[in-house]
Specification:
Layout lengths: L4 E11 L3 H13 L5 E4 L40 H22 L10 E3 L2 E6 L1 H14 L9 E3 L2 H7 L1 H4 L8 E6 L3 E3 L1 H12 L5 E4 L2 E8 L5 E7 L5 E11 L5 H8 L8 E12 L2 H6 L3 E3 L13 E7 L2 E11 L12 H5 L5 H10 L1 H11 L3 H9 L10 E5 L3 E7 L5 E4 L2 E5 L5 E6 L7 H12 L1 H4 L2 H10 L11 H14 L5
Parallel strand pairs: 1-2, 1-11, 2-8, 4-13, 11-20
Antiparallel strand pairs: 3-7, 4-6, 5-6, 9-10, 10-11, 12-15, 12-16, 12-17, 13-14, 14-15, 17-18, 19-20
Helix pairs in contact: 1-6, 1-13, 2-13, 2-16
Length: about 500
């Protein structure tokens, strides 16, 4: 019996129904409304992997409190380049979300963004000295104006009373606070964007559909092979442009696409867990995202934080994440993912990256074998009065850190996001993790420049981008008045209590 293969054509195929695909799909549809877009998601709902609130290690990353974005260099100075880039990017995201709300494309901003102060908190002479230097360096940039620094325990208690309850001893403490910090539920935001997109002409969304293979035609377009997991139906989509935003699953699809630009890329999976508070009295006492310093050897997404979030309309309090190791590339993935990703063109970079990152491997193994007492001990460094019965363990998401070749062909483990695109711009893939979600709009604008350069140069696209993102093409740190004006405007539209 011959199986009938359903064949269709599209201008754009988006693989993976996370925040990246949602943002790119909406940007393209606003810029060129007549585009035919098809979206394929292997699960039965959108944003169930990296974009989901329980799986997302960082919500509202804006570099206000994340110390791993401002490393201390060997000469004792503090590097601020990455933090400044991230805060600029987050402001772009805020402008885009405000535009969507103003245009009625998204309802109820409180469903996905809330005001939550961002704090950094350290103890010990060396760490206090570092935090003060960090504060002084960041004050040189306008977007960090408003940040407060203190070494006064009473002031810290005013900002976050829970972290000071039961704290004894004479250890020196320091903290910074940024009141305009936010909590963003990227799962809720992603689903809202897709709800809007599905109502648009020319947009088709397919759940329970897994992309099995990609092959390039001679005319530069792509054949995307898809299987409907509900009935076994096979589909073929001919697409002018393909975006792979499948979280940890992107690497395996990049390898199937077989573009030269993807040679040498590998992935190192890192899993995570949270301690979730189940005592409502404790949850109500805390209203901040409080980040500390990571342990030696820890990956950046494992920076410990005691974190106020809004999830499904309820206030939640999390501590972690505790890192771990799994060979899966997705939370709903296969234990064979890591083995399947090893190819002749990336085995050398992956092995050399593994050798260079033995401390990370040791750290992850130690984390895997942590007892509940070990986890409670880590929590008590932030909440000295924490009691075991008030917290339960919750699985977080799966991250795949990028391994790429250096000039000598050796592997470098990257802790950011990486866009890989075909030279002709017909395919783009997003790899990596933090601070991905918060900087999605900037990442997708960069992607437009790589893959749609001719359209991007037209007056029509330029004008529309300026309408959606008023600061487009400029740096807000260089324009204090514009920065203040846009922050005030977006805060009003998004109903933030700045």
């Amino acid at each position: 019996m011959t199986t009938t293969i359903q064949k269709t054509e599209a201008d754009v195929v988006l693989i993976g129904a996370g925040i990246m695909s949602a943002t790119l799909g909406l940007l393209l549809k606003e810029l060129q409304p007549n585009l035919k877009i098809e979206i394929f998601e292997r699960l039965d709902v959108a944003a169930a992997e990296s974009s989901d609130a329980w799986n997302n290690a960082g919500t509202g990353h804006s570099a206000f409190c994340e110390l791993n974005y401002t490393p201390e260099l060997e000469d004792g100075s503090v590097e601020t380049k990455k933090a400044v880039k991230i805060v600029e990017s987050f402001e772009v995201s805020r402008q885009f979300w405000a535009y969507l709300v103003e245009q009625g494309l998204l309802d109820n901003p409180e469903s996905f963004i809330r005001s939550v102060p961002h704090m950094s908190f350290v103890w010990g002479e060396k760490n206090v000295k570092y935090l003060k230097k960090r504060f002084e360096e960041l004050q040189k940039y306008h977007l960090f104006k408003g940040m407060e620094y203190t070494e006064d325990p009473n002031r810290i208690r005013e900002w976050a009373p829970l972290i000071m309850e039961g704290r004894k001893g004479t250890k020196k403490l320091a903290a910074t606070s940024m009141k305009i910090g936010t909590d963003v539920n990227f799962g809720a935001l992603t689903r809202s964007i897709f709800n809007h997109l599905q109502k648009q002409d020319g947009v088709k969304m397919h759940f329970n559909h897994e992309v099995k293979d990609l092959k390039k035609y001679e005319d530069g377009s792509w054949k995307v092979k898809v299987k409907d997991e509900t009935n076994g139906q096979k589909k073929r989509v001919k697409a002018k442009f393909v975006f792979i935003g499948a979280g940890g699953g992107s690497l395996l699809l990049l390898e199937k696409a077989n573009i030269p630009e993807g040679n040498g890329f590998g992935g190192f999976p890192v899993s995570g867990q949270w301690l979730k508070c189940v005592n409502s009295e404790i949850i109500e006492k805390h209203q901040a995202k409080v980040y500390g310093k990571a342990s030696v050897g820890a990956p950046p997404m494992s920076v410990p934080h005691i974190d106020t979030r809004m999830i499904d309309g309820n206030k939640a309090l999390l501590f972690g994440p505790y890192a771990g190791f799994s060979t899966k590339f997705l939370k709903n993935g296969s234990y064979f993912d890591l083995a399947q990703s090893i190819k002749l063109n990336n085995i050398k970079p992956m092995l050399s990256a593994g050798i260079k990152n033995i401390p990370l491997t040791k750290y992850l193994i130690d984390q895997v074998f942590q007892s509940s007492e070990d986890r409670l001990k880590a929590l008590k460094e932030y909440l000295p009065d924490a009691k075991k019965e008030d917290w339960v363990l919750e699985n977080a998401g799966q991250r795949v850190q990028v391994i790429k070749k250096d000039k000598e062909g050796r592997g470098v483990l990257e802790f950011g996001t990486e866009v890989v695109n075909a030279a002709d711009g017909s395919l783009a893939v997003l790899l990596g993790a933090s601070p991905g979600a918060s900087t999605t709009v900037s990442i997708m604008l960069d992607l437009l420049g790589r893959c749609f350069p001719e359209q991007l140069a037209t007056p029509e696209w330029q004008s529309k981008l300026k309408e959606m993102i008023p600061s487009y093409g400029t740096l807000l740190n260089d324009q204090p008045e514009l920065a203040d004006s846009l922050r005030a405007h977006t805060a009003k539209v998004l109903k933030l209590e700045n």
